[in-house]
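Recap for those who missed Tuesday's class. We walked through two folding examples back to back. For each one, the amino acid string is listed first and its predicted structure tokens come directly after. Nothing is annotated here on purpose, so try labeling regions yourself before you check the end of the notes.
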Amino acid sequence: MKLSNIILISTMTSLLCLFSCNNDTQKRLSQEETTEYLMKGKEITQSTFKALSSELKAALARGGIEEAISYCNIQAMPITDSLAKAYDVKIKRTSLKTRNPDNAPNEKEQEILEGYLKLHQQGDSLKPSVHRIGVDKVLFTAPIMVQPLCLNCHGEVGKSLQQANYEIIKKHYPDDQASGYEMGDFRGIWSVEF
């Protein structure tokens, strides 16, 4: 083998090792950082859930499913965006079966959603998690499980979700995929990017 080939292979191997080592370092969080991001992520998602669910319950009380769907269609994103601004993060609810196409998962969220779904199908408990993404970002995710209130709009059509209410949903979200759930199903995730 020529000396120039040996030098080229050696250089390429060194660069590959350097990039691999740097990527490993970037992906790891200390236990202290992980705990801090878990606590902050839980605080943010609980605050956002509280704001969204209290407004949703009020809309349901005012005008039933039609008012609730209208609220979600118009007000949910601005409320989430205002809380994201207050916390200086990006907040998103996403799923493998979205209702609003603006909530479609990115590549990392898709991977995490598939992981949570697999764990849920195996009967494992789902817990919030933290992931480093890139050099300077951290992603907190927490599972969203179907609760009784969710079934009004995300349940099985003709059973927990009345056909007439599903027609209202389809008017606002013609490409809806987010129905057919049962109590306790894995619905999606909270995604908070720091």
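Example two. Treat it independently of the first, because the proteins are unrelated.
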Amino acid sequence: MNIANALRPNILKPEDLSPNWRWDRAIPAYGHTSVDFERRVDHDRLRKYRLGRARQALKNSQCGALLLFDVNNIRYVSGTKIGEWERDKLCRFALLAGDNEPIVWDFGSAAVHHKVYCDWLPEASWRAGMLGMRGTVPPSVGLMKFHAEEVMDLLRQAGVADMQVGVDLAETAMFFELQKVGMKVVDGQQIMLDAREIKNIDEIVLLNQAAAMVDGVYHMIHEELKPGVRENDIVALANKMLYEMGSDDVEAINAISGERCNPHPHNFTDRIIRPGDQAFFDILQSYQGYRTCYYRTFNVGRANDVQRDAYKKCREWLDNAIALIKPGVSTDTVAKVWPKAEEFGFPNELAAFGLQFGHGLGLALHERPIISRLVSLDNPMEIKTGMVFALETYCPAADGFSAARIEEEVVVTDRGCQVISLFPAEELPIANRY
């Protein structure tokens, strides 16, 4: 046992680890401004909660430190982000070691900026760093070796150099350098996912606000979806509207119509929308880092019986899953109400993965829990109060090319769940009905 961890003063108390909200009330979607007459998102509370959760998860593990390269984990422990362009660069990293405050190595001048503007951590927490930008600066230059030695020295100072270090993801060459300096590297992503699976009220409000933005986008799509419009036109309009509403990242928008609906291609093209098309969309974007995954299906002008039947079945599968969501239920119970892969045209569960599916939402698009017949039947996990996740179902139509796809985002409360994706989807919406 790590005595330093056991005595750590910054570990949150058990009562601090649960969302502090009355679940008999609706989850608020306040807007984008701060005001003096309502307590809206409390960012100090949010940062304290997230760092406390990370510390608690570290304490519960066999590790003495976490070395983080995943931008979502860096934001979780430090409250910092330097632009969406960083997401795939592997250019920032952070260390949470023993009882010490997090240290963040930032891209160039960002470290100086954070010393000025991020006063929730001491100035010593911000350092300039440079690893290699996904190998464009070769390891032979020595930057990775330099930082590996620097981190190892900090582990010694924290008294945890002899313990395992949880690393989430890094360039292969960086893993080698960490091992060369004597670091006992283990999987740190599982520790961080443990921390991130339960959201506090500030995270839930931000997720709800992000969903409210998508509600508005779907109203716009309902008005704009008509013959002659292309899939990419809808994507462009949605991007514009989301950024105008305050989105900090439109990660992707799936726009799929007509004969492209089955099998599901997970992208968009310049296909022209035609009368009678079935079309579905997925809006993946974030507000203050908190993400949406939110499908809706429409028909253009009119719908036929097989399209209505596919939608009805898709909705039924989704509603059956939502009805089961409450604390204490295991994910295999939910997955079992969804059809087997062979029942809707796929050879096995691997080929059908992601079509009847649940996944956590937070700073990443895919967090815990994951709900799927592929993984949940043999490896179930418990659903807990404070989890936020999306449930999505898919049903191909009997015509061989149309299909329905619906997704709802839910917050697990102490009395069940609240759906926060509110654009109407109980029945098949007909855009610009003839």
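Answers for example two:
The longest strand covers residues 403-413.
The CA atoms of residues 209 and 391 lie 18 Å apart.
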